[in-house]
C-alpha cells in the first residue's frame, strides 16, 4: 500500500462511522480494484463478461417486451379497427328491424356507431390463379365511410360512388395481388349455398367491379375480406331484408361490461351479445403466456451474469487477501472492507444495467430500420407479413416494465455482491499474513 492509501485509511478511521456510508477511501480502493492489471487479467475478463452479460440481458428484455407490447397494441388496434367491440346477433327472431335497432344502439352513451352486417364465405377468382377463399361483408355505404380503418386506407382513385350504387366491391391489397386484379377489373365470387334447381343446389356465381382497394396493414384481413354493399350482399346470400349481426364500436373497448346491459334494454327482446374479448380470448391469452415465458427465459441471462459477478469477486477477494489484511491492520473496519467489495461488484451491475437500458432504447427506436438492414444483408425477408400478420415490426416501450427490468437487474447485481463482500470482511489478517 502506498502513502496516499495509508493516509486515507488513517483519516477514514479517525473520522469513524460519521464518515458516511461510502467514504472517499472506500470509493478509491474499489475503483483501483476495478482497473485491470497484468496479473489480474483473468479476473478482469470475468468482470468484463459480467458487464456484457448484464448489458445484453437488460437490453434483450427491454427489446423483447417492447416488441411484444407493440404486437399486442397493433393487433388490437387493427382487429378492433374493422371488428366491432360488441356484436349483437339474433336469438329467437331474425334482425329484420335492423335500421331501427342500429339507431337505438347508436344513441347509447359510449357507443360511437352501430353497423348492420351480412357475412358469408365465398371463393374469389380473378385473372390469375385458381382463386382464394374470401369473407364477404355486406355493409351500408354510409357505415363504411365511418369505418376509418378501411375508408382512410383506400388507394387513390377508389370509386365509392360505384360502391354506394351497389355496382362494385372493395377488396384488400393482398387479395388484389394474389388474383392479379386492379381497380376497375372484375372479381368473380362463388358462394356454395346458391339457387335451388330441379338438379339440386347450384353454387351462386356472380362478377363484380373492383371499385377500390384498401390496405389495413394486417395481411390476414388484406388477403381475405371483400366489402360489398349491404343490399347486394342480402341478395347474393338470399337473406333479403335481414342482417346476421349488428356490430357496435365504443369510445373505449374496455367499457363493454358497462354498455352490455344498456344494449339488452335497447334491443327490447332476447339477443345474443358477445364482445371482442370473448371472440379473441384464445389469441390474446396465447400472447400473454408467450410474453410471460419469454420474460422468465431471458431473465436467466441476467442471473448468469450475476453469478459471474460472484465468481469474479470471490477470486478478487482471494487475490487481494494480503491487501485486505494490511488495510485491517491500518485501522479499516470489517464493515469498510465489505463496502469496498460491495461497491466493486455493484459498479459492474449498475454500469451494465445503464448500458443495457441505453442499448435497448436505441434498438427499440430503430427496430424497423434494423430489420430492413438484416433483411438486406441476409437476402431473405425477416418477419414475413404473411406469417406474422403485420406489415412491419412494432415496438412499444413501457416505462413501468422498463423500470421493473432495471430494478430486477440492480437487485440481482447487489445480491450477487453480498456474499463475496461478506467473505472479504471476515478475512483474518493474521491468517492472511502468516505466510507473507
Intertermini distance: 14 Å
- Summarize the main sheet: 6 strands, mixed, barrel
Succession of helices and strands: HHHEHEEHHHEHEEHEHEHEHHHHHHHH
Q: What order do the strands of the largest sheet run in, or round the barrel if closed? A: 2-3-7-4-6-5
The class by helix and strand makeup works out as alpha+beta
Which term fits the overall shape? elongated
Mean pLDDT across the residues is 80
Residue share in helix: 55-70%
Number of helices: 19
Instruction: Give the domain tally.
Output: 2
* Alpha carbon gyration radius: 34 Å
Topology, number of strands? 9
Low-confidence stretches: 1-20
**What proportion strand?**
15-25%
Please tell me about this protein's structure.
With 436 residues, the chain is of the alpha+beta class. It folds into two domains: 3-75 and 284-433, no CATH class; 93-269, no CATH class. Helices cover 58% and strands 17% of the residues. The protein has 19 helices and nine strands. The chain has helices spanning 3-15, 24-34, 41-82, 98-106, 141-146, 148-151, 160-164, 173-179, 219-222, 230-236, 256-267, 276-279, 281-319, 321-329, 334-365, 367-378, 385-388, 399-425, 429-433, and strands at 86-90, 111-125, 132-139, 168-172, 186-197, 200-214, 225-229, 245-250, 271-275. It has a six-stranded mixed barrel. Strand 5 and strand 6 form a beta hairpin. Helix 3 (41-82) crosses helix 15. The two termini are 14 Å apart. Mean pLDDT is 80; it is low at 1-20.
Amino acid at each position: 500500500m502506498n502513502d496516499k492509501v495509508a493516509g486515507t485509511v488513517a483519516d477514514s478511521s479517525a473520522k469513524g462511522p460519521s464518515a458516511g456510508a461510502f467514504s472517499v477511501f472506500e470509493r478509491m480502493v474499489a475503483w483501483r480494484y476495478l482497473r485491470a492489471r497484468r496479473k489480474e487479467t483473468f479476473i478482469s475478463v470475468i468482470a468484463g463478461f459480467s458487464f456484457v452479460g448484464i448489458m445484453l440481458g437488460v437490453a434483450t428484455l427491454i427489446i423483447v417486451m417492447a416488441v411484444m407490447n407493440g404486437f399486442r397494441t397493433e393487433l388490437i388496434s387493427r382487429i378492433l379497427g374493422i371488428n366491432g367491440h360488441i356484436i349483437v346477433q339474433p336469438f329467437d327472431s331474425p334482425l329484420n328491424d335492423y335500421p331501427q335497432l342500429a339507431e337505438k344502439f347508436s344513441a347509447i352513451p359510449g357507443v360511437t356507431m352501430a353497423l348492420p352486417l351480412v357475412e358469408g364465405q365465398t371463393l374469389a377468382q380473378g385473372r390469375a390463379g385458381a382463386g382464394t377463399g374470401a369473407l364477404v361483408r355486406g355493409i351500408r355505404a354510409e357505415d363504411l365511410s365511418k369505418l376509418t380503418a378501411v375508408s382512410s386506407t383506400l388507394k387513390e382513385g377508389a370509386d365509392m360512388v360505384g360502391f354506394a350504387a351497389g355496382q362494385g366491391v372493395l377488396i384488400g391489397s393482398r387479395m388484389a395481388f394474389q388474383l392479379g386484379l386492379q381497380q376497375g377489373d372484375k372479381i368473380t365470387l362463388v358462394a356454395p349455398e346458391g339457387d335451388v334447381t330441379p338438379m339440386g343446389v347450384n353454387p351462386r356465381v356472380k362478377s363484380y367491379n373492383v371499385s377500390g382497394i384498401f390496405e389495413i396493414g394486417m395481411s390476414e384481413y388484406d388477403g381475405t375480406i371483400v366489402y360489398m354493399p349491404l343490399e347486394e350482399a342480402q341478395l347474393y346470400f338470399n337473406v333479403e331484408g335481414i342482417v346476421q349481426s349488428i356490430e357496435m364500436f365504443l369510445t373505449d373497448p374496455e367499457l363493454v361490461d358497462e354498455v352490455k346491459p344498456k344494449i339488452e334494454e335497447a334491443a327490447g327482446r332476447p339477443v345474443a351479445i358477445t364482445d371482442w374479448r370473448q371472440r379473441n380470448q384464445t389469441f390474446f391469452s396465447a400472447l400473454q403466456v408467450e410474453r410471460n415465458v419469454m420474460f422468465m427465459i431471458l431473465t436467466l441471462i441476467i442471473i448468469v451474469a450475476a453469478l459471474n459477478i460472484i465468481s469474479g469477486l470471490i477470486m478478487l477477494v482471494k487475490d487481494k487477501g494480503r491487501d485486505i489484511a494490511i488495510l485491517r491492520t491500518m485501522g479499516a473496519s470489517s464493515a469498510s472492507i465489505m463496502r469496498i467489495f460491495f461497491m466493486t461488484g455493484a459498479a459492474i451491475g449498475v454500469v451494465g444495467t445503464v448500458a443495457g437500458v441505453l442499448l435497448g432504447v436505441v434498438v427499440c427506436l430503430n427496430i424497423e430500420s434494423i430489420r430492413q438492414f438484416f433483411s438486406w444483408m441476409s437476402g431473405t425477408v425477416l418477419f414475413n407479413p404473411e406469417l406474422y400478420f403485420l406489415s412491419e415490426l412494432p415496438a412499444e416501450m413501457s416505462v413501468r416494465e422498463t423500470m421493473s427490468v432495471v430494478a430486477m437487474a440492480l437487485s440481482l447485481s447487489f445480491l450477487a455482491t453480498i456474499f463475496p463482500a461478506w467473505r472479504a470482511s471476515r478475512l483474518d489478517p493474521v491468517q492472511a499474513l502468516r505466510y507473507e
